[in-house]
Amino acid sequence: MLPALPDGDERELESSEEGGGAGEERRPERHGSTYHGLYGYRRSAQGAAGGDGGAGAHTPSTEDFSLTLLDTNLPAEAETELRGFIAKRLTKGALFEGMGSVASVGLSIPESKVGCYYCRFQQENLLEMGTLESDTNAPEYVVCFLGGSEKGLELFRLELDKYIQSLKINLDLEQKNLESCVSPYLRSWFEDAICPIQRVVQLFQDKLASLLHAALSYTPVEVKNADERTEKDISRFLAAASLQGLVQEGTMTSLCIAMTEEQHKSLVIDCSAAQPQLHNAGSNRFCEDWMQAFVNGAEGGNPFLFRQILENFKLKAIQDINNLKRFIRQAEMNHYALFKCYLFLKNCGSGDILLKIVKVEHAEMPEARNVVTVLEEFMRETAVA
């Protein structure tokens, strides 16, 4: 049976697609229905002097700050509504430097209610050079990205935080580059931050299983003959599909070192043809099943759905790792539990990857290491048979 989203997830994510029509009709509507807003934000000297001077200690009142519209593609009425929404958040002290938040907002636009990512930030060179005194009344900015649903944008919050980091560097204090550099960057937020996973799924199709396998096992990936965007998309997909932050940091480091030393196992992706050609590609039943879930979801063209499938893929991998570790603890004292470990590895579809992960994690634990060694022998014998 193919993996599926929990009940209601797919339906809700599909409903986050603006327009909500048939798959082939939704694509232009989705791109035409994404919005942005950039505001200059200044705290008054009186407001900035309040509190004890600590970061985040002062909660401004409505008289303490001003918002100046710098760039937007929203209709005038909707922009005014968005500005009111941001002003309320600022009044409550709910905007933190460089850390975005996501909410659902109702605006006078065809979609009526959309997800809104919003973030307050300072120009990068001001953060590096400024002192406390000069920063007190230094210009700051608030950026808003609107599209899809609150739940959909929440899946991409970290990617959007990174997108703001680049905006910090590109933004010119005198706004000399606003039209030439910043405005195009703001307009392309959806394509650049939200769509990479979707583009990779559409590019690789049934070869996606090898990419998922490389991400889980931290196999080095070399991309050849690809344009800059495709290379970045593949890199972002691998990062999003990996278990970074979900398993112990030391385990990931050791896995990376071990896989890098096995250079002959590097996955090479040649993008010189219309369809990528893969060399030294690995796969397993687990990744094949999840690849099918991505391919099945490709019909609707919903990037939020792809990200939800990817999160479920990682969640299932973590559950399998935790189950195997529990079985190994039991097998240290029980031979029947050792057989259960073997059956689990044989049936889960990703025994090759799970064994590598637990082997690294249990390297300094003699009894568990012995169990893993026996399991490796069992799996090798099964493969030969």
Could you explain the architecture of this structure?
With 385 residues, this protein is α+β, with helices and mostly antiparallel strands. Helices cover 56% and strands 13% of the residues. It contains 19 helices and 8 strands. The chain has helices spanning 9-15, 23-32, 45-48, 76-91, 124-129, 132-135, 150-154, 157-170, 178-187, 189-194, 196-204, 208-217, 228-241, 249-261, 285-297, 303-331, 335-348, 351-361, 366-384; strands spanning 35-43, 65-72, 101-106, 113-122, 140-146, 221-224, 267-270, 277-279. It has a 5-stranded antiparallel sheet with strand order 2-1-5-4-3, sandwiched between helices. A 3-stranded mixed sheet has the order 6-7-8, covered by helices on one side. Strand 3 and strand 4 (113-122) form a beta hairpin. Helix 16 (303-331) packs antiparallel against helix 17, helix 17 (335-348) crosses helix 19 and helix 18 packs antiparallel against helix 19. The chain is elongated and about 70 Å long. It starts with 8 loop residues before the first helix and ends with a helix. The model is unreliable at 4-32, 47-62 and 130-134 (pLDDT under 50).
Q: For the residues shown, what is the average pLDDT?
A: 80
What's the alpha carbon Rg, rounded to whole Å?
25 Å
Termini gap: 26 Å
Question: Got a strand count?
Answer: 8
Describe the main β-sheet briefly.
Answer: 5 strands, antiparallel
Q: Level of helix content?
A: 55-70%
With strands numbered from the N-terminus, the spatial order across the biggest sheet is 2-1-5-4-3
Q: How much strand?
A: 5-15%
Which spans have pLDDT < 50 for at least 5 consecutive residues?
4-32, 47-62, 130-134
Shape label: elongated
**Annotation field: number of helices:** 19
H/E topology pattern: HHEHEHEEHHEHHHHHHEHHEEHHHHH
Secondary-structure-based class equals alpha+beta
